[in-house]
C-alpha cells in the first residue's frame, strides 16, 4: 500500500499502535472488500476486551481507512494520551450528561467530511457471561437516521485472549490468534425516512446487533444465543 498522507499525529499514532499489534497477534483478516476506500461510513463492531480497540484500529487502518472511534470522554482526560486522541480525530462521548448530544453532532460532522466513524453499539464491553454480543444502545440508529450512510458490521474474536475482561488477566505471549471479519453493509432500507421514535431506534439497534451476533457465531462456530441484556438476561 502506498504511503498515505495522514499527517504527523496520525502517523505517530500508527507508529506506536501497529508494531505491537503485529508482534502480539496472529491475524486472520477477512472482508476488507466491504470497506470502501473513500466516502462516509459507519463501522459497527462487537466489544469483548480492552484490547479489541487496538485490534480493530489495526484492521481498519490496513483496510485503507482512518479509524475514528466514538470513545468515552474519560479517556480524553488522560495525560498526554487524551491530547493525542483529540489530534488524531477521535470523538469523545459524554455519557449521561447534557453534553451527550455533542458526540452525535461530532460524528455527523465527521461523516459529512467523508470520514469513517467506528462505533461499539453496546457502548461498553459486553457483560454477557460468554462474551456474546448484548443488546446495544441507540446511537448507531440515531446516526444512521440522521445521515443515511452505509453501516458496515465488523465482528471480532480473539482479543479476549490478550485481555480477558472476566478474569482481568493480560496474556501477551505467545502470539494470540485474532479474527476480524467485515460484512456487507447492513440492509436498513425498511427504516428509510422513519422518524426517530423509541420503537424505530430500538428496532434498528436490535437488527444491527443481530447481524453482529450472527457474524460472531460464524467465527466462533455453533449457534448464536439470543441477544442478552444485563437487566433481564436473554430477551430476543
Automatic annotation (TrEMBL):
Keywords, in A-Z order: Acyltransferase, Transferase
Taxonomic superkingdom: Bacteria
MF (Gene Ontology): acyltransferase activity
InterPro entries assigned to the protein according to its UniProt record, in alphabetical order: Plipid/glycerol_acylTrfase
SUPFAM superfamilies given in the database record: Glycerol-3-phosphate (1)-acyltransferase (SSF69593)
Pfam family, one: Acyltransferase
Domain Phospholipid/glycerol acyltransferase, residue spans: 41-159
PANTHER family listed in its UniProt record: 1-ACYL-SN-GLYCEROL-3-PHOSPHATE ACYLTRANSFERASE, POSSIBLE ACYLTRANSFERASE
Name of the molecule in the record: Lysophospholipid acyltransferase family protein
Source organism of the structure: Luedemannella flava
Lineage, highest ranks first: Bacteria, Bacillati, Actinomycetota, Actinomycetes, Micromonosporales
Amino acid at each position: 500500500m502506498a504511503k498515505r498522507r495522514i499527517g504527523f499525529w496520525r502517523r505517530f499514532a500508527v507508529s506506536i499502535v501497529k508494531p505491537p499489534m503485529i508482534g502480539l497477534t496472529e491475524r486472520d483478516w477477512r472482508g476488507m472488500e466491504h470497506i470502501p476506500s473513500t466516502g462516509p461510513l459507519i463501522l459497527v463492531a462487537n466489544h469483548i476486551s480492552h484490547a479489541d480497540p487496538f485490534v480493530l484500529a489495526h484492521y481498519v487502518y490496513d483496510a485503507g481507512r482512518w479509524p475514528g472511534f466514538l470513545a468515552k470522554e474519560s479517556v480524553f482526560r488522560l495525560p498526554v494520551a487524551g491530547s493525542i486522541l483529540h489530534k488524531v480525530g477521535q470523538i469523545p462521548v459524554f455519557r449521561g450528561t447534557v453534553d451527550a448530544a455533542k458526540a452525535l453532532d461530532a460524528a455527523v460532522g465527521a461523516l459529512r467530511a467523508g470520514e469513517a466513524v467506528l462505533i461499539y453499539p453496546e457502548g461498553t464491553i459486553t457483560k454477557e457471561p460468554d462474551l456474546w454480543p448484548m443488546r446495544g444502545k441507540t446511537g448507531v440508529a440515531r446516526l444512521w437516521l440522521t445521515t443515511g450512510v452505509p453501516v458496515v458490521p465488523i465482528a471480532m474474536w480473539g482479543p479476549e485472549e490478550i485481555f480477558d475482561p472476566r478474569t482481568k488477566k493480560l496474556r501477551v505471549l505467545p502470539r494470540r490468534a485474532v479474527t476480524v471479519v467485515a460484512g456487507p453493509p447492513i440492509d436498513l432500507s425498511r427504516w428509510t425516512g422513519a422518524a426517530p421514535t423509541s420503537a424505530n431506534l430500538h428496532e434498528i439497534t436490535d437488527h444491527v446487533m443481530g447481524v453482529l451476533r450472527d457474524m460472531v457465531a460464524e467465527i466462533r462456530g455453533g449457534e448464536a444465543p439470543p441477544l442478552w441484556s444485563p437487566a433481564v438476561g436473554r430477551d430476543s
